[in-house]
Each structure stands twice: as C-alpha cells, then as structure tokens.
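Internal QA ticket QA-208
Title: Verify multi-chain structure generation after dependency bump
Assignee: T.L.

Test input:
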Amino acid sequence: MAETQVLGWGTHAAPSQRVTKDTEDFVILAINATFDGTAAAGAFLPCVEIVSDAGEIVARCPADATVAAGSSAEATFAPFLRSSSTTDLAGFLHWGTNTDSSALGLTLNANAAVSVNGNAHAISVDTGGAANLSLYANIGNFSLGNFWNTISCNGSTSIDVVPIGQLNLGSTTGATAITGLHDSSWTLSGAAGTGGKLTLNTDGGVAISGGNTGVVIDAASHGISSPAADVVVNTQNGRTFTVNDHSGNPILVLTG
Amino acid sequence: MAAAPIKVPLAPDISCVGGYIVRLTALDATTGATVAGVVVSSVSMQVDTSDEPVEPEAIDVTPPVLLHVPG
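Actual output:
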C-alpha cells in the first residue's frame, strides 16, 4: 500500500471539492475537515460526496447527527468508523446532564408515539422565563390525569377554560366546589343576548345561602315570574311561607 | 467556539480516477439541499495510490515439445 496525503484544498464555502487529476488513481482512506457553521443558514449534516467522471454520485456519506446553525464541527470521514459520539458536545444529546451553552434548541419529531416515563421520578417542564408553554392535542383528546393526588392549576392573572362545546365540571365522589378567595366573587352567567340560561338542578336540592348580605334576586324586567304557569311555593310538614317588609316584620304568612 | 469532533463512516474501496470529484458539503437533514453559510477548511485527505490495474495472468505460450520416438 502506497499512501499519500492530499492537502491544499484551501477554505471555501460548502461545497468544497477537488477534481481528481487524470494522472491520479486512488482510494480514499480518510478525510478530515472543519465545518464552520457560524454563519450557517440552518442546521446541517457534514457530508462527503464522491461523484464519478460522468457526473453521477457514487457515494454520499453524511453524518447522522446535525450540527446546529452557529456551531462548528471537525469531521473525520473514514471507512468503518462509528458515527456516535460519547463526549459532551454541543448539539448532541447523551446520557447524563446535557448542558446547552450555545443557545441550541431541541426538536423531537416522531412518526410514532413519544413516551416519557419518569419511572417514579419527577418530570419537570419549565420555560424558566417569560416564554409560553404550550401543550396541544390537534384532533385527539387532551387529558390530565392523577389517580391518587391533586391536580393543581394556579394562574397569577387568570385561568381561562373556553371550550367550543360544553364545559363539564364533575367529581366522582367528592363535592364540586367553586370558591372565591380574598373577598372576590364568582359569577355564573349566560352570554348576553343569546338566551343563555342558568340551571341548578340536583337530586339533593338546591341551597342558596346569602351569608351576611342575604339572597338578592334582581331580575331587570320580570322580577320572579312564571309567564306560562302559576308560581307555586311548596311548604311541607306545617312549615310556613313568610314575606317580611324591609324592617323584617311579616306582611304575609301562609301556613301549609 | 471550538469545533466539536465527529466521526462519519465513509464508503470504502471506491477507486477515484481522473475526473472523479471528492466533494465536502453541508446538507439539510430534511431536504438534502446544501445549507448556505457553512465554510469548509483545514481539509486533509489520506489516499491509497496503489490501486493499480491488475495485470492478467501470463499465458503460457511455450510451444509443446515434440518427442521423437524412434520407429
């Protein structure tokens, strides 16, 4: 075997190529080159192509891991090399702690299911700043599930749940509670002008407790009315129905 | 930033004769198109130049020896 080193390629924007001279006949043993991606338009694969004298590509040998735009790589091409890297390199993921000090992103594209299993270890996703966090199920359902513990959702400003269809809040065994804290109130309302209606209907009855203010029913035009049927108040077991004046004195007492 | 070293398998035993091109390029992983703005430098290529055509085996053209058998 007679080996020769071929140098003098110079520095060129990719692609950088050398045309074999008519007097030459060789087999490539190895090529080493630096790919400077400082001004790269995007992530790239360092690659060696061998093109025949007829202009046909004989071999195309790209790296199997991309180099991020802005990063550089020194690539060694040689037969039978393993392409994986076991060192802590910018732009590569490896087992252990991956430290990204060069503003690299991470994109995972899959053609099948993606599964992340913490195996009894916590999984945290934190944007670490003002960036948004989006979880989006395009057509399929979006589920948050927790068998044994609480699901918490805390928004500093507000939490908006606005489905196109029906909004369901339900609890299998415990009560469904909506509580306004720190003197705040909560409101159930139907959209104005659309005939939205508030319905409270439970097997255990409906209880309205006004606290220190009492219960105020403020219907702008009809008061309490039943335009299509009589208004019926049922009292049971001898209980009375009493209407008081503003001072609390009974002005109407009906005994069942 | 220092260039990260990577290793790439290369197709072996391809004989490059006159007119063949050895090209170093940067490809887009999705489209295969050349990515602009990548600069290639410090290229070093080690080659084996002993890829000479194999000569055909010599044909034995020695004329046969005629034996004279006295009658």
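Spot checks passed. The CA atoms of residues 124 and 153 of chain A lie 15 Å apart.
Status: verified.
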